[in-house]
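This is your field. Pick holes in the following sequence-structure pair:
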Amino acid sequence: MQQYQLETLNLTDLTSINQQLSQVSALEIIHWAYNTFGKGLVMSTSFGIQSAVMLHLVTQVAPDLPVIWVDTGYLPSETYQFAENLTQRLQLNLKVYQSPISPARMEAIYGKLWDKQDLVSLNLYDQIRKVEPMQRALEELKATAWLAGLRKEQTDHRKTLDFVATQGQYYKVHPILTWNSRDIYQYLNTYDLPYHPFFDLGYVSVGDWHSSRPFLADDNSERDTRFNGVKQECGLHLTLTPEQAQSLDSSTL
């Protein structure tokens, strides 16, 4: 059986692992990750438009898996309600992390960083509100591997990802990497799962209230609707220096 073969894969040979994972389902990839990393495995969620898919997949395999949610303090009220509903429905083992710098304090010191529309300010915003809390979560939960619902069609950077990769000291596993939007919504319909209420307002991606907008006819990808397309990545899924991140954000690869 393929699952048994996956369990015996050598983590030092990521090329072979990725070749084999490309032949199996998302659920089998999650099984493999859980069997491989055990208590060191966590997952992250943004409670975004399509987040119910990964949460449902993972809880079928590991109901008690720690689910990290970075609360920036700037999320729409609908996101908090959506998170509460999914947490109750799927009985998530939710771990909420926030920046030690409150929104009010950050604005007093740096101003409204998201309004400045330059990469230095936006990267600082992401570092304070998202990256630092996520790093702290991984350390406190003693994580060795991290499940994330990234997909190739989302950004130019994500097109280059593999099913399993390393990010700093952690392994990153992307079970739905090759799913497209049709796969996502078919899964939601099959299991009667909710999507974020902003979907009905024309959003295909939602983050903070001040930097998310509906998808427009001239948008090239869902990430164009975040930070007016100035940034493609929030920093959580990059193993880059600030200078490298800025170069990637400003390029189309």
Notes: The first strand starts at residue 41 and ends at 45.
